[in-house]
Amino acid sequence: MGYLITLAGFAALASIFAPEVVAQSCSGVTGRFQPRMGSGYRYSVLATGLRQPRHIVVDSAGNLLVAEGGTQGVRRLVLQDQGNIVCVQSNTQIVSGSTNHGIALSADGKTLFTSNLASVTAYSYDAATGQVGQGRQIVTGMSFQGTHPTRAIATSKWSPDTILVARGSASNIDTTTTQQSAARSVIKAFSISKGMQTAHNYASGGELIAWGLRNVVGMTEDPVYGGFWSVENQMDDLRLNGRDIHNDNPAERLSYHGVLNDTANRYKGLNYGYPSCVPAWDPQNVGISGLLVGSLFKPDGVPNVAADACANNYMTGRLHFHAHTAPLDIKFNRNSTAAYIAFHGSWNRNPADGYRVMRVDFANGQPVHAVTSKTAQIPVMENGNIGGCPNNCFRPVGLDFDQRGRLFVSSDTSGEIYVIYGA
After folding, report:
1. How far is it, in rounded angstroms, from Cα 411 to Cα 342?
2. 11 pLDDT higher than 90
3. Which of 109, 236, 250, 336 gives 60 a disulfide partner, CB atoms 3.0 to 4.6 angstroms apart?
4. What residue stretches are annotated with the Pyrroloquinoline quinone-dependent pyranose dehydrogenase beta-propeller domain (predicted)?
5. Is residue 2 a part of any domain in this protein?
6. In a 3-state reduction of DSSP, which class is residue 217?
7. Which of 203, 185, 152 is nearest to 274 (CA)?
8. Does 162 reside within a domain?
């Protein structure tokens, strides 16, 4: 397998995006696409030919670990700087099978976690050698039911014995998730050390962090302020009073869950409304008086709630995004001045939207924009021709930073890993 790295340089233009003007490459492979980059950013293609790369993580030695989809396992890419670009020195499969989306490392970097549709598995891991120990299931009981098989996972530096696991709904409108006992459309936290002794059962074990979240596919912890965040894919084919409003509603959602080790965390265990209530992206299209961006409302075909329940009984997101853009991961830069979000792109919208990496600016642990903002997203990396999506474009999935501030981005459809410089 070969690898190519393409370096994009940018002129100082007044427009949001700057065109590619310089190309450099590692020997071997040509990237399939030439993304448009936001002002101040450049990119390279680190690797091609991967099998549906999903979430990714940089280890303590600066190697990139990649969870490949379809139970393909985990690959370890040892990286090497070549001038002002980075290349792959070696590519080795270190875990076979047993993963389809999620990957994380413990706070000390010595334990590797992967997830599949049924369980979370832990392995001892040596970043220097790539040596992986025998896998041990620490969370079980998540067997696949319906349309959302991903199991996003995240670890915590502020609460290092904790692993968080998200499980999505079984269908577009999963009415059973109005009960916590369904253990779907939830985020739960589990003790790693206890799971090493006896595996946790997802439904009956763990601590509830949040529920009423249709399908959380990306989670992260703020490295400076310790806040825990999730990005959520909301409902498809939305109708209200028999009218089709799905093209611009509901909003995708960024939600805040507080600091995990804070005993007074008032965000822990809150319900975000799904399936009964969904957040608005285009309130005018919804047509309910007084509705704002992010306001919750009850669409057709969902469980009945009291007339004022959507407004008063559920937690709202902290920011909201274009309908059906499918945010799949979120990561902060090292000083927590910005969070970067991978939008995998829509299938339930015409024209298509998403297929990009965007930035949200933060200050003092919170986004600088208001909950109702529609302009909080700043372009970082987009497809030059979104008309070629979803099959003939890059589709961002996983994100992670290395210690030098380089942002790695996986694209599952094209089997590529990109590097963004200047993040």
Report:
1. 10
2. no
3. 109
4. 36-421
5. no
6. strand
7. 185
8. yes
Phi first, then psi, for residue 330 (nearest 5°) are -145, 135
Which letter does DSSP use for residue 287 in this model?
A: T
Which pLDDT does position 3 carry in this prediction? 36
For 113, the enclosing helix (H) or strand (E) is strand 111-115
> Tens digit of pLDDT for each residue in 270-299?
999 999 999 999 999 999 999 999 999 999
Cis peptide before 303 (omega within 30 of 0): no
| Angle, alpha carbons 161-216-218 (nearest 5°) | 65
| Cβ atoms of residues 351 and 343 within 8 Å | no
Cβ 113 vs Cβ 104: under 8 Å: yes
Question: Across the strands, what pairs with 125?
Answer: 132
Q: Which residues contact 17 (CB under 8 A, 6 or more apart)?
A: 36, 37, 38, 39, 379, 382
Ordered alpha helix ranges (H), 251-315: 283-286, 309-312
Tokens 């980059």 found at? 37
CA distance 322 to 205: 35
**What pLDDT, in 10s, does the model give residues 85-106?**
899 999 999 999 888 899 999 9
**Is there a domain that residue 47 lies in?**
yes
User: 98 with 135: CB under 8 angstroms?
Assistant: yes
What's the one-letter identity of residue 30?
A: T
The strand pair at 53-58 and 243-244 is best described as unpaired
Residue 52 has pLDDT above 80, yes or no: yes
Q: How many domains does the chain have?
A: 1
| CA separation for the pair 53, 66 (Å, rounded) | 6
- State the Cα–Cα distance between residues 88 and 78, nearest whole angstrom: 6
**Continuous H helices in 109-267:** 192-197
Inter-residue contact 261 to 158 (CB < 8 Å): yes
21-48 burial, b for 16+ CB within 10 Å, e for fewer?
Answer: eeeebbeebebbbbbbbbbebbbbbbbb
- The identity of residue 150, as a single letter, is T
* Domain span holding position 307: 17-421
Q: Which amino acid appears at position 296 of this protein?
A: L
Domain for residue 10, yes or no?
Answer: no
Q: Would you give the distance in Å from CA 48 to the centre of its chain?
A: 21
Q: Give the Cα separation of 258 and 267 in Å (integer).
A: 6
Per-residue tokens: 158: 């502020």
Distances from the Cα of 378 to the Cα of 92, 221, 243, 329, 340, angstroms: 35, 21, 32, 16, 9
HEC profile of 369-406: CCCCCCCCCEEEEECCCHHHCCCCCCCEEEEEECCCCC
In eight-state DSSP terms, residue 166 is E
